[in-house]
């Protein structure tokens, strides 16, 4: 009997300690910050009305994921694609809203499986300066352009490093401009975003993607190792919701919606929004 108060006190202490632990298990962060490639329509691009934000299919998907797990996810513009990756590596942002799987990124990021979309990277050329092209070997001896820290999958990245001459530039706009100025022979970039940016620059009739594609890679959501919010509960919830949404075809529907959104936005005066 004398031990009962001690037992009671111990029980109360455990209950008191369990409350914050349960709160932590439900996710210690109520808000996450994501970023990504700002020249990636219809997947991601800067909101013309609120240029501090990124919008697009990937941003819409993250919004749905966040709502389903009770976490507010903001997708913000942090600079070029290379800069966005550096911000994630340093833990200044929590998530990358779409990245290919590479050994280098695995050193600083957890990949949330499954991939939510698949993209094809292609060879972009001037229509008046095409060259015989049937495989990536036909790029040898030519001068190409790509973005700083861009990836086209482990296999092609290794081939490019050993066999190709590629100049890295900060933006696709700059890469396409160099191509038009004949300072490069081709540009490597994804198909849909390349079409969108070429159209924006008024180059849709001057540039052409070649077939076959050089790679087909999955786009993943990644969680920075240095994010203060990176814990087992969050990783598990993100993977669970991404699996559910992908199985339901949600990413593909969002991609089609944002293709239409991007095209409609290009027809509007500057400073207006389709939202």
UniProtKB/TrEMBL annotation:
<dbReference type="InterPro" id="IPR001638">
    <property type="entry name" value="Solute-binding_3/MltF_N"/>
</dbReference>
<comment type="similarity">
    <text>Belongs to the bacterial solute-binding protein 3 family.</text>
</comment>
<keyword id="KW-0732">Signal</keyword>
<protein>
    <submittedName>
        <fullName>Transporter substrate-binding domain-containing protein</fullName>
    </submittedName>
</protein>
<dbReference type="Pfam" id="PF00497">
    <property type="entry name" value="SBP_bac_3"/>
</dbReference>
<feature type="domain" description="Solute-binding protein family 3/N-terminal">
    <location>
        <begin position="30"/>
        <end position="261"/>
    </location>
</feature>
<feature type="signal peptide">
    <location>
        <begin position="1"/>
        <end position="25"/>
    </location>
</feature>
């Amino acid at each position: 009997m004398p031990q009962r108060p001690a037992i009671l006190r111990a029980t109360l202490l455990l209950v008191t300690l369990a409350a914050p632990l349960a709160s932590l298990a439900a996710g210690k962060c109520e808000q996450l910050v994501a970023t990504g490639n700002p020249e990636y329509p219809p997947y991601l691009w800067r909101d013309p009305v609120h240029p501090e934000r990124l919008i697009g299919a990937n941003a819409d998907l993250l919004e749905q994921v966040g709502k389903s797990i009770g976490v507010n996810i903001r997708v913000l513009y942090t600079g070029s694609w290379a800069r966005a990756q550096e911000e994630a590596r340093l833990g200044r942002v929590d998530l990358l809203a779409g990245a290919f799987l590479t050994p280098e990124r695995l050193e600083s990021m957890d990949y949330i499986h499954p991939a939510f979309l698949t993209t094809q990277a292609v060879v972009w050329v001037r229509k008046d300066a095409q060259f015989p092209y049937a495989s990536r070997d036909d790029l040898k001896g030519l001068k190409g352009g790509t973005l700083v820290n861009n990836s086209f999958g482990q296999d092609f990245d290794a081939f490019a490093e050993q066999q190709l001459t590629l100049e890295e530039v900060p933006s696709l706009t700059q890469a396409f401009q160099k191509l038009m100025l004949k300072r490069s022979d081709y540009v490597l970039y994804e198909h849909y975003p390349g079409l969108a940016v070429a159209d924006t620059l008024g180059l849709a009739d001057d540039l052409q993607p070649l077939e076959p594609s050089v790679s087909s890679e999955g786009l993943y959501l990644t969680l920075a190792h240095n994010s203060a919010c990176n814990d087992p509960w969050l990783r598990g919830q993100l993977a669970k919701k991404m699996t559910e949404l992908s199985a339901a075809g949600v990413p593909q529907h969002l991609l089609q919606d944002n293709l239409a959104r991007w095209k409609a936005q290009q027809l509007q005066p500057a400073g207006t929004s389709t939202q």
